[in-house]
Amino acid sequence: MRILFLTFYYEPDLCAGSFRSSALIKELKKYKDIDIDIVTTLPNRYAQYAQNAQTFEKVSENCRVYRMHIPSHKSGFLDQMITFMYYFRAAYSFTRNRDYDFVFATSSRLFTAVLGAKISRKKRKPLFLDIRDIFSKNTKHILRKKKITYVKLLILLLEKYAFSTATKINLVSAGFSPYLKNKFPGVSLSYHTNGIDDIFLNFDYTKKRKKRDRLQILYAGNIGEGQGLHKIIPQLGKMLEDNVDLLIIGDGGCRNDLLKEIKTQSCFNINIMPPVGREDLLNYYKECDILFIHLNDFDAFDEVIPSKIFEYAATGKPILAGVRGFSRKFIQDNVENCEVFEPSDLTDCIKAYSQLDLGLTVRDDFKTKYTRSKIMSAMASDIYNNCKASLKNNYE
Q1: What are residue 105's phi and psi, to 5 degrees?
Q2: Quick one: 24 and 114 in the same domain?
Q3: Fewer Cβ within 10 Å of end Cβ, the chain: N or C?
């Protein structure tokens, strides 16, 4: 059985999509009667974190990675649209004369799903989609108002094209379920979430803190419109400047907005540094006192589960989370010593901050339930069984 695996990001890129795809491939390649071509891009997630990778890599006897070259970008919407078009053309051309029995695509901003649907229809093969976000709901927040109507109509058409092509759709967040069931009532759904990678499970995060040390709040991840850090971090830093330092590790399209607002607020206790590898990140987690997560106050984010929460929870550190909707409920139901506040609301943030218990919290039940390898093993089995069933149906 030959499987085409489409993902815009793959290791050694640093992002949720890359970590998810890499973990899934680790489980999927264990099935010896399948053969996998991974078609992805050369590392490009962060301009400040360049990693070398080969255009071709043999992962195992039954798995290969083909990385397409795309132009550099700064994570802006237009930048990403252009780079995706390069990926779309290169991936479509690469697969044109190759035979596959099954197409799998994992997609956040819809367009990899569209690529999967295009190839699936062209080759008349089943499509399994892994949806990490509902992009049609984000357009009104990303684009200027005068462009929304036209672009949103196009996005909805592309979404219908991709989702109606799929024989099965996996949703990373069950919060997406009502939308999919309403729009595409006939599609088969599954719910394999994000999870905790092994590297974060067995590390000692105990910090030897002295009483006079200033507290450190750490945010590690993307600095984009979706996170909206510029709406809360500078204000929080200013409010806590007497005894707290804030460290931001990451890059993204709103980095300059964040820097501008820090300057406006005259903050001297906020440090921003470029992305680091996951091994180095472990030590930053160890040395911090509180972990910070924030989603912008957009309606579209009411249904997501931020992938970072799984990694954060594994550390046992206190977590300060600016989220609402499904994310808020998920965190309150599953993560101890994580105080939630309304996104971009400084007063609510300070209140939540004051309620945190410093020190490590045992979250063994959460870690057991959301171990990435276990979740991806179940998802790999799902893909394998769907591929096998589709082949059987073709022969009958």
Answers
A1: -140, 130
A2: yes
A3: C
Domain count, the chain: 2
Are 133 and 109 in contact by the 8 Å Cβ rule? The answer is yes
Residue labelled with tokens 């099954």:
102
93 exposed, middle or buried (CB, 10 Å; 0-12, 13-18, 19+)? exposed
**Per-residue pLDDT reduced to its tens digit, 145-168:** 555 677 788 889 999 999 999 999
Q: Any residues with CB less than 8 A from the CB of 181 and at least 6 apart, and which?
A: 189
215-258 tens-digit pLDDT: 999 999 999 989 999 999 999 999 999 999 999 999 988 999 99
Do 340 and 375 have their domain in common? no
Cα(45)–Cα(355) distance, integer angstroms: 35
Which residue range forms the structural domain that includes residue 129? 2-195+371-395
Residue recorded with tokens 């044109």: 96
Does position 109 have pLDDT exceeding 90, yes or no?
no
Q: State both tokens at 129.
A: 């989609």
Decide if 85 contacts 118 (C-beta within 8 A): no
Specify whether the CB–CB gap between 313 and 371 falls below 8 A: no
Composition of the chain by helix, strand, coil, percent to 5: 45, 20, 35
Note the pTM of the prediction, 2 decimals.
0.92
Q: Residue 339 has which token pair?
A: 């105080």
Are 69 and 133 found together in one domain?
A: yes
Q: Which alpha helices (DSSP H) does 58-130 contain, by range?
A: 77-95, 111-123
